[in-house]
C-alpha cells in the first residue's frame, strides 16, 4: 500500500525529515539553553532545559523528561507549558524537561532500513544509533552534572520522534525508565518494529519500564500501533507497565496536543 496519507501529512505539516516549523504560538517559558559539541553526531547541538517552579528554592532532586523536537521553535514551549500547568493542578510530580533542538531530523530519528521507498522520506543512515548514543553518553551526563537530577528518566516524541521512542524501547530499552510515543512512524523499514514486536518483547531487561503510546486515524500508522498493542497483550513481561490509546477521532496533525495531558499524567505518576 502506498503511503499517500503519511506523505501528504509530511509535506503539508513539515513533520518529515525537515525541521518542524512552529504551527502554534506557544508562549516561551523561562528556561536555560546550552550547546554541546557531540562526537557521536559530529556537530554542535542546542539543548533547552525547563525546570519546575520549586527547583530554585529547594535542594530536591528531580527526574528528567527528554524530548527530541525540543527547539524553541519546535515543541519545547508546548510541552514545558503543559508540564507547568499539570504541576500547578497537582496532576503530576515535578520533572525537568530537556529539549533537543533539531538539525537533521530525519537522520537522527530513523534507524537503518531495507525499504527502498523509505529513501524518499529520510536518508537511510541509521542515524538514530548515533543520536541515541549522543543522548546517553554525552547529553545525560552533562544534564546530571549541571542539574539536581534523579536516576529516573524518560522520553517523549511524536511521528518520527515517536518512531525513535519506540525503536529505543524495543532495541535499547535500558536507555530510559519510561517512554511516550504519539503516532510513531512504525511503517519505517517495512514495519520492522511492529512485525517483530513479539520477539523484541522477550528481550526486555528485568527492570520496571513504562510505555504509553497512541495511534491516530491515519491508516499507515494506526494499523501498526494496533499490531504492537496486540503483541503487548500477548507477550508483555510482568515488569512492563503499558497503555495504548487508540484515537480514531484524531489526525496525525492533532494527536500530540489532543493526548499530551493524559499521556503525561498516566506516565509520570508512579
Give an account of the 3D structure.
This protein is of the alpha/beta class and 270 residues long. The chain has one domain: 3-Layer(aba) Sandwich (Rossmann fold). The chain is built from nine helices and eight strands. Helix 2 crosses helix 9 and helix 6 packs parallel to helix 8. The longest helix has 20 residues.
Gyration radius, to the nearest Å? 17 Å
CA(first)-CA(last) distance? 41 Å
Order of helices and strands: HEEEHEHHEHEHHEHEH
State the strand order across the main sheet: 1-2-4-3-5-6-7-8
Give me the number of helical elements: 9
Tell me the CATH superfamily.
Alpha/Beta hydrolase fold, catalytic domain
Total beta strand runs: 8
CATH topology: Rossmann fold
Name the CATH architecture: 3-Layer(aba) Sandwich
What is the average of the pLDDT values? 92
Identify the CATH class.
Alpha Beta
Task: Tell me the count of domains.
Answer: 1
State the helical fraction: 25-40%
Strand content: 15-25%
Helical/strand content category: alpha/beta
Can you summarize the main beta sheet? 8 strands, mixed
Q: What's the shape?
A: globular
Amino acid at each position: 500500500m502506498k503511503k499517500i496519507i503519511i506523505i501528504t501529512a509530511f509535506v503539508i505539516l513539515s513533520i518529515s525529515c525537515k525541521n518542524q516549523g512552529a504551527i502554534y504560538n506557544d508562549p516561551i517559558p523561562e528556561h536555560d539553553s546550552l550547546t554541546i559539541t557531540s562526537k557521536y553526531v559530529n556537530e554542535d547541538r542546542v539543548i533547552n532545559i525547563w525546570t519546575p517552579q520549586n527547583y530554585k528554592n529547594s535542594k530536591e532532586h528531580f527526574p528528567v523528561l527528554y524530548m527530541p523536537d525540543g527547539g524553541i521553535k519546535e515543541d519545547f514551549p508546548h510541552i514545558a507549558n503543559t508540564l507547568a500547568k499539570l504541576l500547578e493542578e497537582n496532576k503530576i510530580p515535578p520533572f525537568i524537561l530537556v529539549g533537543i533542538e533539531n538539525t537533521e531530523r530525519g537522520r537522527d530519528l530513523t534507524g537503518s532500513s531495507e525499504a527502498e521507498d523509505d529513501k524518499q522520506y529520510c536518508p537511510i543512515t541509521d542515524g538514530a544509533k548515533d543520536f541515541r548514543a549522543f543522548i546517553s553518553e554525552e547529553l545525560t551526563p552533562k544534564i546530571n552534572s549541571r542539574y539536581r537530577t534523579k536516576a529516573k528518566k524518560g522520553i517523549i516524541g511524536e511521528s518520527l520522534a515517536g518512531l525513535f521512542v519506540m525503536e529505543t524501547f524495543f532495541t535499547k530499552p535500558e536507555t530510559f525508565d519510561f517512554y511516550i510515543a504519539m503516532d510513531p512512524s512504525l511503517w519505517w523499514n517495512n514495519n520492522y518494529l511492529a512485525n517483530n514486536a513479539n520477539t523484541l518483547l522477550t528481550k526486555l531487561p528485568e527492570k520496571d519500564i513504562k510505555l504509553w503510546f497512541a495511534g491516530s486515524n491515519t491508516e499507515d500508522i494506526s494499523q501498526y500501533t494496533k499490531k504492537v498493542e496486540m503483541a503487548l497483550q500477548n507477550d508483555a513481561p510482568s515488569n512492563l507497565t503499558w497503555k495504548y490509546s487508540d484515537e480514531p477521532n484524531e489526525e496525525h496533525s492533532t494527536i500530540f496536543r489532543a493526548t499530551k495531558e493524559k499521556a503525561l499524567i498516566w506516565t509520570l505518576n508512579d
